[in-house]
Amino acid sequence: MSDTSLPFRPATEETPLTRRLLIGVAVLGLALLVFAPLAAVFTEALADGWAAALASLGNHDARSAIQLTLIITAIAVPMNAAFGIAAAWFITKFDFRGKAFLITLIDLPFSVSPVVAGLCIVLMFGANSLVGGWLVAHGFPIVFALPGIVLATMFVTFPFVARELIPVMIEQGRAEEEAALTLGAGGWRVFWTVTLPNIRWALLYGVLLCNARAMGEFGAVAVVSGKIRGQTATMPITIEMLYNEYLSVAAFSMAALLTALALLTLLLKTALERRHADALAASHRH
Amino acid sequence: MHIDIDEISKQFGATAALHPVSLAIPSGALVALLGPSGSGKTTLLRILGGLEFPSSGRVLFDGQDATHLSVQDRRAGFVFQSYALFRHMTVFDNIAYGLTARPRATRPEKAEIARRVTRLLDLIQLPHIGARFPSQLSGGQRQRVALARALAIEPRMLLLDEPFGALDAKVRKELRQGLRDIHDTTGLTTVFVTHDQEEAMELADLVVVMSMGRIEQIGRPQDIRARPASDFVRDFITV
Ligand SMILES: Nc1ncnc2c1ncn2[C@@H]1O[C@H](COP(=O)(O)OP(=O)(O)OP(=O)(O)O)[C@@H](O)[C@H]1O
Ligand SMILES: [Mg+2]
């Protein structure tokens, strides 16, 4: 069957020349768009050596930015995981009118510019708005403070989990859950023992993507945070400010750290995928 | 347990899946719901199992009104058309599910659960597959595991939706006998859905012929053959 001396080739296979050309273009594209910028970030960060790079990350404002980004991610990602599961569950397990519209609505944060999203939050919760004024008067400011930044981040990253889950849950249908019900299990038990295990891989993907985006969000956060150094400036905001002040080593060191966090997320995903390749394949068969 | 279906109807939006239908199923009977696609067989079975609620009418179990009884409280062993085995659990855990899901007060001990699962695996004549996952089973094996899982909860009745639908002719014949045997040993009132008239006639004590949401005829196989109640029934059973 696999006699290579035959002049025939499978219908889906290109000629050797086209193949090499295509591979070349792909590699070139990857190198230009992904590897070169990555390398540049780390080179710039280390332009004055390791000591200078590390020192720039050690000062008060830098630490505050790193801490803030981690706190925001730690709040926004679990919240969006919970909301995403709830939304996907609601959409896939019930039949109701306006379902298609709701699915479109979930994608809204992807189509609206983050800056516009940020402005909406300022309009709704700013000190000059009805709600915002009341909240500020009671010592709970939203805009230019942590709650606003978390809100903006959650808005921008909301679709990731729900979008990963909806197709998987539609494909799996309701039969397994119904079976669990007929076997006497209550709603929560069905969720924990049947629904959740069946969607765990899609959920993990969604959470990792959501996490990467939450750490890196700039536009919406830039509007609602007020960019107060050492207080509401997140890592991406700090990078921009440092760069605008020509503090190249400091800016790129922070950028390198942010990139490393994102790469770590991807690495985690790859490792999990490899470890559980069998389980993954099994849950996709059927 | 005897089941009475009293003037049950079911609307899905504008479509009437069931016009008012009535049916009395004697205790311990093996009943076939027979009819072409879309005749309302699955809908009626799901109403019995508590997965769907009727638009009007009543369901009675042993004379007690069970119309509003929750799916969990019905204790109906349900075998789904696609089997619906839990894909992330072993065969053992699938069969044990209904027992481990019980509230602590009535849940058997671990050793007792294991004993019962082993007995059920013997009953379906697959004693050595407890550690496998559903994706590692053949269609016929999956069907039998689904049956064992439904039996594990010590159900009051057995409801099967096209239990042999997805299998080849030879396996169908074997499993038919298997279902008959299990019915005879457990004595459970059993209702199964099929669109195969030969299967219904051969296996069931009582055949319910359905068409377009209505019951056309109820009777023993030989009576339906001898005296079809309508042209539809005559055509359907002489394919
Ligand atoms: N969830 C639902 N929503 C809307 N219509 C439904 C629903 N379930 C069933 N129906 C409709 O009710 C009618 C009866 O369906 P049912 O599934 O009971 O038929 P069936 O006899 O089991 O057919 P088949 O042999 O194809 O399984 C069909 O017209 C079907 O389209
Ligand atoms: Mg059906």
TrEMBL record, chain A:
Q: Fetch the Pfam families from UniProt.
A: BPD_transp_1
Q: What's its job?
A: Part of the ABC transporter complex CysAWTP (TC 3.A.1.6.1) involved in sulfate/thiosulfate import. Probably responsible for the translocation of the substrate across the membrane.
Q: What is the lineage of its organism?
A: Bacteria, Pseudomonadati, Pseudomonadota, Alphaproteobacteria, Rhodobacterales
Domain ABC transmembrane type-1, residue spans: 66-267
Q: Where are the transmembrane segments?
A: 21-46, 66-90, 102-127, 139-162, 202-226, 246-268
Q: How does it assemble?
A: The complex is composed of two ATP-binding proteins (CysA), two transmembrane proteins (CysT and CysW) and a solute-binding protein (CysP).
Organism the protein comes from: Gemmobacter lanyuensis
Q: Name one GO molecular function term.
A: ABC-type sulfate transporter activity
| Name of the protein in question | Sulfate ABC transporter permease subunit CysW
**Topology of this chain in the membrane:** Multi-pass membrane protein
Q: Would you tell me the Gene Ontology cellular component terms?
A: plasma membrane
InterPro entries, per this entry? CysW_permease, MetI-like, MetI-like_sf, Sulph_transpt2, TAT_signal
Assigned keywords, A-Z: Membrane, Sulfate transport, Transmembrane, Transmembrane helix, Transport
Report the subcellular localization. Answer: Cell membrane
From TrEMBL, chain B:
A Pfam family annotated for this UniProt entry: ABC_tran
Its keywords, alphabetically, are: ATP-binding, Nucleotide-binding, Sulfate transport, Translocase, Transport
- Top-level taxon: Bacteria
**Where in the numbering of this chain does the ABC transporter domain appear?**
3-237
> An example of a Gene Ontology BP annotation on this entry?
quaternary ammonium group transport
Q: Give the matching SMART domains.
A: AAA
A single GO molecular-function term is: ATP binding
Query: What Gene Ontology cellular component terms go with this record?
Result: ATP-binding cassette (ABC) transporter complex
- Name of this protein: Sulfate/molybdate ABC transporter ATPase
